[in-house]
Amino acid sequence: MNNPGQKSFPVSWDQFHRDSRALAWRLTSVGPFDAIVAITRGGLVPAAIVARELNIRTIESVAVKSYDHQAQSAIKVLKPISQQVLDLAQGGGKILIVDDLVDTGATARAVREMLPGAHFATVYAKPKGREMVDTFITEVSQDTWIFFPWDMDVTYAAPISGGTD
Ligand SMILES: O=P(O)(O)OC[C@H]1O[C@H](OP(=O)(O)OP(=O)(O)O)[C@H](O)[C@@H]1O
Ligand SMILES: O=c1[nH]c(=O)c2nc[nH]c2[nH]1
Ligand SMILES: [Mg+2]
């Protein structure tokens, strides 16, 4: 989670678009894919960009929420993957799962279990979750918080040397 001692890695819309396009380029050697499953909500943005680049028109979403239950993190499925896409995977269709990042890997692990043969791609990865991802673009350290453009606003930044101007 986001603690005061963490490093920060702010990402602009422009950078996110470039990094998502780079992900699409990397995925060209893995596909073609029959469908994308975007993990909401953060995965919706890279999924749209990758779908455009790779000409994928069947796009499904899955919503999961992780929470701590008696010191064990559990996952609740808020919106499951449609039967149509599960059938597609069962019939040999190639499915691409997309999220914005993996951190601990808990979200990725849960969604992978729903689609064991799918290819899992994220734009960013932290070390703990990296092994859950097949393809990603940029790795950041575990103590870094990634700030996505849809979570930010333009605001004043204090000078590096301190002071107010
Ligand atoms: O690897 P993990 O430790 O599971 O963390 C990664 C997940 O956390 C964030 O989503 P979040 O659940 O905060 O919801 P959001 O996408 O709606 O912001 C992020 O978008 C990933 O889906
Ligand atoms: O915006 C976010 N940035 C992160 O680094 C992160 N890790 C888990 N969930 C996250 N959300
Ligand atoms: Mg998410």
Secondary-structure topology with pairs:
Elements: E1 7-10, H1 13-27, E2 35-40, H2 44-54, E3 59-69, E4 72-79, H3 83-90, E5 95-102, H4 106-114, E6 119-125, H5 127-130, E7 138-139, E8 144-147
Parallel strand pairs: 1-8, 2-3, 2-5, 5-6, 6-7
Antiparallel strand pairs: 3-4
Helix pairs in contact: 1-2
Domain Phosphoribosyltransferase: 12-155
Keywords: Cell membrane, Glycosyltransferase, Magnesium, Membrane, Metal-binding, Purine salvage, Transferase
Binding site for xanthine: 103, 146
How is this structure best described in words?
Xanthine binds at residues 103, 146. It catalyses: GMP + diphosphate = guanine + 5-phospho-alpha-D-ribose 1-diphosphate; XMP + diphosphate = xanthine + 5-phospho-alpha-D-ribose 1-diphosphate; IMP + diphosphate = hypoxanthine + 5-phospho-alpha-D-ribose 1-diphosphate. The protein has 165 residues and is of the alpha/beta class. The chain is 28% helix and 30% strand. It is built from five helices and eight strands. It has helices spanning 13-27, 44-54, 83-90, 106-114, 127-130, and strands at residues 7-10, 35-40, 59-69, 72-79, 95-102, 119-125, 138-139, 144-147. The strands form two sheets. A six-stranded mixed sheet has the order 4-3-2-5-6-7. It has a two-stranded parallel ribbon with strand order 1-8. Strand 3 (59-69) and strand 4 form a beta hairpin. Helix 1 (13-27) crosses helix 2. It is globular, with a radius of gyration of 17 Å. The two termini are 31 Å apart. The mean pLDDT is 93. It binds 1-O-pyrophosphono-5-O-phosphono-alpha-D-ribofuranose, xanthine and magnesium ion. Xanthine binds next to strand 8.
